[in-house]
Design the sequence.
């Protein structure tokens, strides 16, 4: 149904890693960090999650709020929030941060990751997909932040890495680069 909503409102399908994570993560309170127009939030809502969808783009949040209102969805709350502030004020069972970290100031990434971890309930999950810059695949895009090899997994020491890879992928514009992809479970 969520794919239908995304299609109905001209949004891309939910990120493939969000769809994949829903095979592992049980519905609960979810945070969609950098939600843009809401493609992942709508999918998570349809899977039974209660979703807080945050972004700094007021137009994108307005688009999502419009969909939520038109469809009578009471499980998705769009909210203005700059993730680089690293000041989450609630705890979640699942935090999804797909292709978002690369757009924030590199000096804030450690604080954002620590804040995500602190606000994940024990047994909860973090999903991160972020561009990398490596010797074999230099990042062709001028992102403010990219992970180096092993950097993301090192930031989650002590968590169970349910899925982790640093595979080459293709961006929507055709650029090929490595992405750090991780689904991690908080064990304590």
Sequence:
């Amino acid at each position: 149904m969520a794919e239908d909503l995304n299609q109905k409102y001209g949004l891309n399908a939910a990120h493939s890693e969000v769809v994949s994570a829903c095979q592992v993560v049980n519905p609960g309170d979810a945070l969609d960090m950098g939600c843009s127009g809401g493609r992942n939030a709508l999918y998570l809502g349809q899977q039974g999650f209660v979703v807080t969808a945050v972004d700094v783009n007021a137009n994108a949040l307005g688009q999502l709020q419009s969909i939520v209102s038109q469809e009578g969805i009471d499980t998705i709350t769009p909210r203005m929030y700059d993730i680089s502030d690293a000041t989450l004020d609630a705890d979640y069972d699942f935090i999804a941060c797909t292709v978002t970290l690369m757009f924030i100031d590199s000096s804030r990434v450690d604080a954002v990751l620590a804040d995500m971890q602190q606000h994940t309930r024990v047994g909860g999950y973090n999903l991160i997909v972020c561009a990398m810059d490596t010797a074999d695949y230099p990042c062709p895009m001028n992102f403010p932040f990219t992970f180096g090899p092993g950097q993301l997994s090192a930031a989650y020491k002590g968590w169970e890495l349910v899925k982790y890879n640093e595979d080459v992928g293709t961006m929507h514009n055709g650029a090929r680069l490595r992405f750090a992809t991780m689904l991690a479970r908080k064990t304590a």
Remarks:
- The chain has one domain: 2-185.
- The radius of gyration is 16 Å.
- DSSP finds six helices and seven strands in the chain.
